[in-house]
Amino acid sequence: MDAPSTSAVAFPQAPLRFEPVLKRYLWGGRRLGELFAKPIGPENDYAESWELVDRDPEQSCVVAGPLVGKTLRELLRDYPQEMLGRHAPLPRFPLLVKLLDAAQLLSVQVHPNDAQAARTTPPDLGKTEVWHVLAAQPGSKLYAGLKPHVDRAYLEQALRTGQVEPCLHAIEPRVGDTIFIPPGTVHALGAGVVIAEFQQSSDVTLRLFDWNRVGADGKPRPLHIEAALSIIDYTFGPIQVLRSSLLPTLPLDSVATQELVVCEKFVLKRHTFRRHWSRPNDQRFRILMVIEGELRAANDPLDTLCTPGTTLLIPASIDEIELLTESTATVLECYLP
Ligand SMILES: [Zn+2]
């Protein structure tokens, strides 16, 4: 056995909480602060809160407990078994978890799969992603997939004339909707939508269309039309929404679970519970994000209420996960298959 590194401390049997990494982009707003108490400043363009990230240069840092200040990358390096269990070791954390506030319409994009992304410079992972809608203004839209008759030639013609919207499958989002975006899917977030996003930790985005807009400098933003056209999967057609039905009033101490996504990259579930939720862990890490209600997590080093937008990383070494609420709460749970 190697000697533990000098910085090693005993690994706590506790959930991990991290500092959010805020990103400002033109299309952002203020709802990351208003809805989720994220530490935004005075500006009006807070677009993304990266809740869990292990990429260069962005790193999630632990905010409380004996591992305070450690980055996610350092935790994977120093405590691979405690962090990852059956998935250890991994060179970096495989998932990226975000909250997004689309105050304005985003560009139309597509992401590559793993094989396609491996050929980019620098090589990266592909991006499979899923959206769970947390807020939606009336009349807001999401775009996911192409209409059934749209093939490459049709889309190329639409790009030439700037009339791309009629090609796109539009969704009127409701709170609780889940939209699964496999690689090769044309997609865009519309104005007024707030989502939680779980995805492979990848940064390869190919921009197909920017709604004929210009940037602050008066010029159109760069597009990657050829590359985007070549990785779109024209067989997908419209992407279907999974609509979380309103859950019935729950009896005391009961849990209602909905499986939102099961794919080869991750599993996403939604649990609504009254008073108490617990489950044995099975040697894997789990990500929990509170989306409704307030709760406490057993052994939480911050010992404050977890409110909507709070993200917890449950390390693989925790045997039992336990959440407590005085009323009803809903969490999203994400883990590797
Ligand atoms: Zn995307």
Describe the structure.
The structure is a single chain. 12% of the residues lie in helices and 35% in strands. The protein has 337 residues and is mainly beta. It has helices spanning 31-36, 72-78, 80-84, 114-118, 152-161, 225-231, and strands spanning 21-29, 46-52, 95-102, 108-110, 129-136, 142-146, 168-171, 177-181, 187-189, 193-200, 206-209, 241-243, 255-262, 267-280, 286-292, 296-297, 311-314, 320-335. It is globular. The protein has six helices and 18 strands. A seven-stranded antiparallel sheet has the order 1-2-3-10-5-8-12. Strands 13, 14, 15, 16, 17 and 18 form a six-stranded antiparallel sheet that branches. The site of zinc ion has 5 residues, from loops.
Write the layout of secondary structure elements.
Elements: E1 21-29, H1 31-36, E2 46-52, H2 72-78, H3 80-84, E3 95-102, E4 108-110, H4 114-118, E5 129-136, E6 142-146, H5 152-161, E7 168-171, E8 177-181, E9 187-189, E10 193-200, E11 206-209, H6 225-231, E12 241-243, E13 255-262, E14 267-280, E15 286-292, E16 296-297, E17 311-314, E18 320-335
Antiparallel strand pairs: 1-2, 2-3, 3-10, 4-11, 5-8, 5-10, 6-7, 6-9, 8-12, 13-14, 14-18, 15-17, 15-18, 16-18
Summarize the structure.
The chain is mainly beta.
Question: Would you list the SSEs in sequence order as H and E?
Answer: EHEHHEEHEEHEEEEEHEEEEEEE
Determine the number of helices (DSSP H or I, runs of at least 4 residues): 6
**Main pleated sheet:** 7 strands, antiparallel
Average pLDDT score: 94
- Give, in spatial order, the strands making up the sheet with the most strands: 1-2-3-10-5-8-12
